Amino acid sequence: MRVDIPDGKDPITYVWGELVPGIGPAASHFSLAVYAHTTLGLREFEAARLRVAQINGCAFCLDWRTERDGQKVEPEFADAVADWRATDAFDERTRLAAEYAERYVLDHHGIDDEFWARMTAHYSQVEIVELSMSIGSWLAFGRLNRVLGLDTVCVLPSGGSSPAKPPRP
């Protein structure tokens, strides 16, 4: 870990709550809001989230699977996300979610009119903004956790994720 954690303190609670009290709690609320208030389908949500996790290399994010109403994506889903261009496991919305996440993270200047035409054919403006904010959250906070070494000390909350129980930032 690249941040000194006082003895007896939970690293996540300390860094995200106590260390920078003017920023950390607000960032945490935003991170959690992505899970609690999403209107995106589970497969689209997870395709984008996992693609960001794969690029960031955040160990916690790579292991996490969002659960909604007792449903999670199939175990092979992460492999399909990594192979989003060729997989036959995705419909067009799910494929676009993975592609958008990759472009957003790696080449946002390369998002061209052709891509936007495909996106707007399958996603509403509201969904595009929500997906963009979600990807931004995962990029920022997953990368923060990875860079500071917090991704190896994150602990899954009991009961899995649902809109009422999103993962810790």
Automatic annotation (TrEMBL):
Domain of life: Bacteria
Residue ranges of every copy of the Carboxymuconolactone decarboxylase-like domain listed in the record: 28-102
SUPFAM superfamilies per record: AhpD-like
Gene Ontology terms for molecular function: peroxiredoxin activity
Stored PANTHER family: 4-CARBOXYMUCONOLACTONE DECARBOXYLASE FAMILY PROTEIN (AFU_ORTHOLOGUE AFUA_6G11590) (PTHR34846), CYTOPLASMIC PROTEIN (PTHR34846:SF10)
Name of the protein: Carboxymuconolactone decarboxylase family protein
Organism: Nonomuraea montanisoli
Native organism taxonomy: Bacteria, Bacillati, Actinomycetota, Actinomycetes, Streptosporangiales
